[in-house]
Specification:
The protein is of the alpha/beta class. The chain has a single domain, classed as TIM Barrel, CATH 3.20.20. The chain contains 6 helices and 11 strands. The strands form 4 sheets. It has a 4-stranded mixed sheet with strand order 4-5-8-7. Helix 5 crosses helix 6. The termini are far apart. It binds zinc ion. Zinc ion binds next to loops.
Length: 277
């Protein structure tokens, strides 16, 4: 009996060891071991509109002629408060694009407090609705460590909610922004690719943002390796054909000298409300 107990304990220990090994393998083998590594972009094979090399901007002989793109985007819940106090006056036709059409925005939505009747109303007005996760949990460590299934539940889950509750066709919801712009590396981009999203708008840049905004990156596809700096790791290493990145070009506030690595600049802010000074 004693021998059996000892033996049984060994079996349990071995089984535990095997389980630990499995768990370790599961945490150390991310999708980067299964997805194809991205190589440097070849402009002869990567051509618009299907493919775009990062850093391959329009000719820059005359900087003043460089085309500019400006997006108006909002994050988190779409609420009646926001509609009454901001959106209703911004989007009533007072402000227009150069082509005389009224301006519109992209809304990166989360689940809590979102008013889906308003989402439907604004989508019909020509606004874009996009995913910003279901839970928007406040721990960036949660997002940093999330696996592909977790990302899919968050990203695709919110798309389903918009589609079902606000009656917006699923194929019209094609963009994503990560909470707090916390990238999830290849796990996050694999999830986007698997669910057929067309673009991500989470990847911040300082080198192509406030440090030299004249060189601000245009959108590019992840068919090939990106030249973009990675201030909020982890960034993707694999190739995701047809999945685009709209870089978040960092602004800077007026707190000049607060960042010792760039004494002549202010603090970086990817969004206006993060510019403290
Ligand atoms: Zn947010």
């Amino acid at each position: 009996m004693k021998q059996f107990l000892v033996h049984s304990m060994w079996v349990r220990l071995v089984a535990l060891g095997a389980l630990l090994a499995l768990a370790l393998a599961a945490t150390t083998q991310g999708p980067e071991s299964n997805c194809p590594t991205a190589n440097a972009c070849n402009p002869n094979t990567c051509k618009l509109p299907e493919c775009g090399c990062s850093g391959a901007e329009p000719p820059t002989a005359d900087w003043s002629q460089r085309p500019q793109i400006l997006y108006l985007t909002y994050d988190d819940a779409f609420t009646e408060f926001g509609e009454t106090n901001f959106y209703s006056s911004l989007f009533n036709g007072t402000f227009k694009n150069p082509d005389d059409c009224p301006i519109r925005a992209t809304h990166f939505l989360t689940a809590q407090y979102t008013d889906y009747t308003l989402v439907n109303k604004y989508w019909k007005m020509g606004h874009e609705m996009a995913s910003h996760s279901i839970t928007h949990r406040s721990s960036t460590d949660y997002w940093k460590a999330l696996n592909v299934t977790g990302w899919r539940n968050e990203i695709e889950g919110l798309r389903k909610m918009i589609s079902q509750f606000a009656a917006v066709p699923k194929e019209e919801i094609s963009g994503f922004r990560a909470p707090f712009l916390q990238l999830g590396g290849d796990e996050m981009y694999t999830a986007l690719k698997e669910d057929g999203f067309k673009y991500d708008c989470s990847w911040a840049s300082r080198d192509y943002g406030y440090l030299k905004l004249d060189f601000g990156l245009f959108p590019y596809s992840l068919d090939s390796a990106s030249v973009q700096d990675c201030p909020v790791e982890p960034c993707p290493t694999c190739s995701y054909p047809g999945l685009w990145v709209q870089p978040m070009l960092d602004l800077e506030d007026r707190w000049i000298g607060a960042d010792p690595t760039h004494p002549n600049n202010g603090m970086p802010c990817s969004m206006l409300d993060a510019c403290i000074m």
